[in-house]
Amino acid sequence: MNTETKIKPNTETKTSGNLKNIFLREFKSYFVSPVAYIVISIFLLVIGYLFFSTFFLMKQANLTRFFSMLPMTFSFIIPAITMRLFSEEMKVGTYEILLTLPVTFKDIILGKFFAAVAFVGVMLLPTIFYAIFTSFLGQLDWGPVVGGYIGGILLGAAFTAIGLLASSITKNQVIAFIIGMTACFFLTLMTDFMVWFMPDSWVKTFQYFSANNHFQGIAKGVIDTRDILYFVSIMFVSLYGTHLIMEEKK
Amino acid sequence: MIKFESLTKYYGHVCAVDNISFEVKKGEILGFLGPNGAGKTTTYRILTGYLQPTSGTIRVKDQFNIQDHQLEIKRLIGYLPESAPIYPEMLVYDYLNYVADIRGVPKDKKLPHLKELADLCSLNEVMHKSITELSKGYRQRVGIAHALMGNPEILVLDEPTAGLDPNQIAETRDIIRRIGKEKTIIFSTHILSEAEATCDRVIIINNGKLAADFTISELREMTKTEPFEDIFRRITRGVNS
Q1: Which residue, among B118, B123, B151, has the nearest Cα to B137 in the 3D structure?
Q2: DSSP string spanning B148-192?
Q3: CA pair distance B238, B240, nearest whole angstrom
Q4: CA atoms lying within 13 Å on the CB side of residue B98
Q5: Which residue in B has a C-alpha nearest to residue A10's C-alpha?
Q6: Closest chain A C-alpha to B195 CA, distance in angstroms
Q7: Whole-prediction pTM
Q8: Residue B95 contacts residue B142 (beta carbons within 8 Å)
Q9: Would you place residue A16 in the very low, low, confident or very high pLDDT band (cuts 50, 70, 90)?
Q10: How far is Cα A28 from Cα B98, in angstroms, rounded to an integer?
Q11: Which 8-state DSSP code applies to residue A60?
Q12: Where are the beta strands (DSSP E) in A114-229?
């Protein structure tokens, strides 16, 4: 073999390039299996049904209903997208190869994270037709629509990070899915439940932790830094937790 | 080249690797032998950065140790894990291409390098098949190509010939001998004649402990009077039966 010279540049390669390589591999691998298409179809069916079942009754040209159902739908769709990210690799054994290639934990975690977020973006893309469709029926205010999509991506990214953490815990995809779904549903619904048995002042405090609450803020078209900070902190905590678990597995 | 210094690994209370120390010289082909469960795979996993040792260290090229320079060491090592677990849904070409990118093979050299490895490991007919469709022998060879990608200085092969038919074993051994001329190789096998035929040196571990360390000439001297199988069993028996 006359490729001896290649070893030298290898020792100097930046690690940032490998985040991109892992991202691309993960993103492409979604579309190789039918699971991706099934998940997208289920998402569009559920959200489409929830949206259109009341759309013509309300006679309002807005997407409020669509965005208000997004946290609930994401709570079970996104863990289904993220459940395989680590669990499958640990089950098949490719995790060993991944960890012995010259990549850092950061490359692996962020590569997988961004790939899943990009997939969520692809999944949301067809729903833009709802907005276009609605705009033909009446005077559509585009502010909340844009805000809704920004919030949707933030919410999706936060849930993805939670799902990724759940997937890093176990090699069983079903368990990863259930843990992720439980956590996401909890963040979505917790204040709705608390109203029944907790004093008002407590519920107000807990509202700060509710994903639904922060998302609906952005979906009104008001971009508040507190809401953005909330989603970013969920991502940070979950991704850092994933890092700790990978560290622990050694 | 690679210095194992009182390497120890516990899984809970079970000791998998017990205070192992030895050195592998540059350009050496080392046969790392031992019965199943002796701690070979654990040792490989520590060397390749998949696991952390409980105590002790491994130094590579004198300047790197596995605690502080994991990334540098990973760049120097090509590793074939046991039974070559590779993404089943990927095409062989896509997979090798991905590994080439991760290993930082420059764009202009990527295609010639891929071709070279495909020739060396006889992968040309399966480049556009997905890995699930491959037979065990082909999958193993994809694993070897994966380990050779980017031309690393050190190769660690965990049972590269396990589960292969005699022809494939001969081919794999041929590959190892051919690339072994310019690389440091550690590999394990249960076929003792294979170790005898390919290695410069043989190390036997048993129950996590270093049990024997022979150069090939010492081994040849010993096998004149006693077959290698018997020597191996004498060293490792008792504890396992």
Answers
A1: B123
A2: HTT--SEEEESSTTTT--HHHHHHHHHHHHHHTTTSEEEE--S-H
A3: 6
A4: 24
A5: B104
A6: 23
A7: 0.90
A8: yes
A9: low
A10: 12
A11: -
A12: none
pLDDT in tens, B195-220: 888 888 999 998 888 888 888 888 88
Q: Is residue B27 part of a domain?
A: yes
Which run of H or of E encompasses B203?
strand B201-206
| CATH number of the domain within which B106 lies | 3.40.50.300
Average pLDDT of every residue of chain A: 87
Token output for B214 = 């022979």
Using an 8 Å Cβ cutoff, are B102 and A46 in contact?
no
Interface-testing mutation among A2, A6, A30, A103, with chain B (most B C-beta atoms within 10 A): A6
Work out how many domains chain B is built from and give that number: 1
Burial (CB count within 10 angstroms: exposed 0-12, middle 13-18, buried 19+), residue A87: buried
What letter does residue B132 receive in the DSSP assignment?
Answer: G
Question: Which residues span the domain enclosing B101?
Answer: 2-236
Task: Classify residue A201 as exposed, middle or buried by CB count within 10 Å of its CB (0-12, 13-18, 19+).
Answer: exposed
Residue B238 phi, psi (nearest 5) = 90, -50
pLDDT confidence bin for B238, thresholds 50/70/90: low
DSSP B230: H
Residue B241 forms part of a structural domain? no
Give CA angle at A37 (A32, A43), nearest 5°. 145
* Pairing outcome for strands B77-80 and B154-157: parallel
B61 φψ region: left (φ > 0), alpha (ψ -120 to 50), beta (else)? left
Give residue-wise pLDDT tens across range B23-52. 999 889 999 998 888 889 999 999 999 999
Q: Give residues 47 to 106 of A whose Cβ lies within 8 Å of B.
A: 92-94, 96-97, 99-104
- Exposure of A181 in the CB half-sphere (CA atoms within 13 A): 12
B74, part of any domain: yes
Question: C-alpha angle with apex B107: B104 to B110, nearest 5 degrees?
Answer: 80
**Measured distance CA(A82)–CA(A162) in Å, rounded:** 9
Q: Which residues of B touch A (CB under 8 A)?
A: 45, 48-52, 71-72, 74-77, 79, 81, 83, 85-90, 94, 98-99, 101-106, 109, 113, 116, 120, 146, 150-153, 179, 182
Q: Which residues, in sequence order, are CB contacts of B55 under 8 Å at separation 6+?
A: B6, B7, B8
A30: nearest CA partner in chain B: B89
User: Cα dist. A24→A109, A118, B184 in Å?
Assistant: 13, 10, 32
ipTM score for this prediction: 0.88
Q: What is the chain B residue with the closest CA to A4?
A: B151
The shares of helix, strand and coil residues in chain B, as percent rounded to the nearest 5, are 40, 25, 35
Q: How far apart are CA A130 and CA A47, in angstroms?
A: 11
